[in-house]
């Protein structure tokens, strides 16, 4: 039986006077991959950024609830640093810090005040192994992260998030800037990571959503059109607009 990890209730989001997300009601299930699909400008990235309050940086106003660990993350007194540790995020373009590979992965631990070198060493190695990067770079851990290829940099960014032991991982178009081989490696990695994480991924690539996700959310003009198991939605969508988008009639 699937277990609910995040529950969204009557959620609305505004940028100034513009309503960008309208009456979102949604369940995100534990240890599953949920893909968010829809045409450009429909609210996909805004929605995924809502799960760890990244829209706060854009002065968004919200109402409704997003329940995580029994707490509404939109409450004013929420500890945002703790929230963003538990709900990590990886962005569209790889964004390694201009530090060494080691220091990139260790960054979040040091920010939290952890100074135990043996603990940090262990975490760095484990996180790099978890993203299948360690064997490729184990002899140059203290080289600049900027020396890595694009695909390696993106896996490094995932490792950096994993070092903080998140419960949920948000991925906003994580492979759109990568070559096909690197994309395949990230997709294969998600299948392994979901055994211990809940994953939400925004993608423009409908085929990718079909390959990697257990559930798919189709959003259009800031509203949910359809949500359900990916296999069912991709073979027998309930909504005509979903069928048109998946088959490429519009989008």
Automatic annotation (TrEMBL):
GO terms for biological process: phosphate ion transmembrane transport. Coiled coil: none annotated. One of its GO terms (molecular function) is phosphate transmembrane transporter activity. One of its GO terms (cellular component) is membrane. Residues 6-246 form the ABC transporter domain. InterPro entries: AAA+_ATPase (IPR003593), ABC_transporter-like_ATP-bd (IPR003439), ABC_transporter-like_CS (IPR017871), P-loop_NTPase (IPR027417), PstB-like (IPR005670). Gene3D superfamilies: P-loop containing nucleotide triphosphate hydrolases. The keyword Coiled coil does not apply. PROSITE patterns: ABC_TRANSPORTER_1, ABC_TRANSPORTER_2. Keywords: ATP-binding, Nucleotide-binding, Transport. SUPFAM superfamilies: P-loop containing nucleoside triphosphate hydrolases (SSF52540). The keyword Nucleotide-binding applies. NCBIfam families: 3a0107s01c2 (TIGR00972). This is Phosphate ABC transporter ATP-binding protein. It comes from candidate division WOR-3 bacterium. The gene is pstB.
